[in-house]
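Field reference: sequence -> structure
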Amino acid sequence: MPTIRQKTVAAIARRYPLYSGCGRLANHPVLQRIAGPSTEIAWARVPGGYWAPSPLSDHVGRAIFYCGELDRKVTWVCSRLVRPGDCVLDIGANLGLVSLTLSALVGSAGNVHAFEPNPQMQALIEEAIGRNKLTNIKLYRCALGAQDGELRLSVPRRNAGAASFVAARRNPDSTEVLVPVRTLSSVMADQSVGHIRLVKMDVEGFEPEVLAGAIEFFSREPPDALIFELNEAAGGLGRHPTMLALSSLGYGFLGLPRRLTHMRAFRFDPRDLSMTPRSHDFVAARVGRIYDEVAERLRAGKPQDILDDRQVH
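Structure field:
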């Protein structure tokens, strides 16, 4: 059980009103000193009302427990785009925070396909599914990549959410675990999956490999939209393999800049360096009617609004 101090700090921290900064707040040294250390796995309510596992020794776990969120921008996008009965994918589910949020949004008539390679996280997601008595989340105990096989996953001891297959992201204070890897196309060949409304992809630099293994499936069943994060863009976003792959599949882009109180997206062309939002978060939507619908739901401004908005935030 969390201590009274920890519960009190959580009750206060959950009043944090801003879209950005939940993770930083929950892991701030001052908050941690006030709350006190713990290695316990607590449980906390998350958007949608379900209980999520919250390891208090983990970066993401602390964000869930103290703030109920990790990134409110992601929750906002999900709430604006996903509707009851939808089919959605959560690639890189970690502790299941987004999967649980999506589960509440799609309801009993919808489906959440969650992919997580870390065995420790898998066990916690399974426990969350049971605790919340959910029947609309299917957990796939594997990573997604460019080909079927096995890879070593590097898992930082204090932040399992930063686990990565990318050598440049390996933390000295990490453990390594050998995990199975499948292509999304091969996994979905065995599933009866209809139209996909949204894909959330958070795989710590492995996005190009995930998309390489998804081309066949996405060509046959293209999702309406994807939300993803890019932290490395040497040579510009227009040359990033993730942007190039999605562009070739017929997607246009929206940027999700860091915001304080009023969330909105921006129509975004990764080839135009002058219009790059101050963010690492993006939404891709199928060019045409769907892109326009997604842009409207995400309150997307014109490209020039990015420059104007920087003067305010």
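Note: The radius of gyration is 19 Å.
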